[in-house]
C-alpha cells in the first residue's frame, strides 16, 4: 500500500483512474451520519439527490465523502464504494462493458456536480466512475478523517489487473514476493490504488470488493471509539510498513480500514 497524496484543491485535475470520491449507501442515514460524525469529525450537507436522499461529508468545510439512503425495498450490500476519475464517463462505461464488466447505474448527470456511473468488474467488485463538473470530488487529504487508499480484495490479481488496465490505462507494478499476490496501480506516474489477491481467504458469500482506508491519528483509540459507537472490529490493529492499521465495520456492516501515520 502506498499513499496517494496529491493536490486536492477545488481545481485539482486527477489523472483518469485516480480515486476521487468514496460513497456509502445505507438504510439508516441519520444513524450513519452520527457514527461517522463522531468517529471522524465530519459534518454533513445535502448533495445531489438523483439516487435518493444523499449528503456530502465535510471536514473543516471541505468535501471528504458521500452518503446516501437506500430505498426500503433495496437489498444491496452496504459497502464503501470508490469512484475513479474519468475524462468521459460514457466512453469509460462502454469500455467496462466491452471488457466483461457490468454498468448497473448510469451514466447519468448528478445535477451540476458532474456525471457518474456505477459499475462492477468481471469479478463482481463494485466501483464508481466520476466525470467532474462543478464537484471535483474529495478536496482534502493527508489529515485524520480523510480517505488515504483504496484496495481491491479479490481471488487473484492477473485477470482484474488486465480489466482495470484496459479501462483506465493504469500502469501495473506487481509486488515480487513468494506467496503474496499484490499489484499497485499507477496513474499519471503515481501509485493510486492496489489489487490484493487473497485466494481462498476471500469470503465466498461476498466475493471481490473494494476497501477504503481512512487516516486516523491513533488507530487503537479509533477502534475503541468504533466499538463504543456500535461498530465492530473485523481485524485487530497491527503494525505494517505503512503504519498501524486495523479493519472495522460500522453499525450497518460496512467494512473499512483505519491507518495511523500512513507513509
How would you explain this protein's 3D organization?
With 263 residues, the protein is an alpha+beta fold. The chain contains four helices and 16 strands. The strands form two sheets. The protein has an eight-stranded mixed sheet, covered by helices on one side. An eight-stranded mixed sheet has the order 10-11-12-9-13-16-15-14, covered by helices on one side. A hairpin with a 2-residue loop joins strand 3 and strand 4 (62-69). It is globular. The model is unreliable at 2-11 (pLDDT under 50).
What shape does the CA trace take? globular
Radius of gyration from the alpha-carbon trace, in angstroms: 17 Å
Number of helices in the DSSP assignment: 4
What is the H-and-E element order? Answer: EHEEEEHEEEEHEEEEHEEE
Write the CATH fold name of the largest domain.
Answer: 2,3-Dihydroxybiphenyl 1,2-Dioxygenase, domain 1
**Do you know the CATH architecture of the largest domain?**
Roll
The end-to-end distance, rounded to whole angstroms, is 9 Å
Strand content: 35-45%
Mean pLDDT: 91
Helix content: 10-25%
Any idea how many domains? 2
Unreliable residue runs = 2-11
Outline the biggest β-sheet: 8 strands, mixed
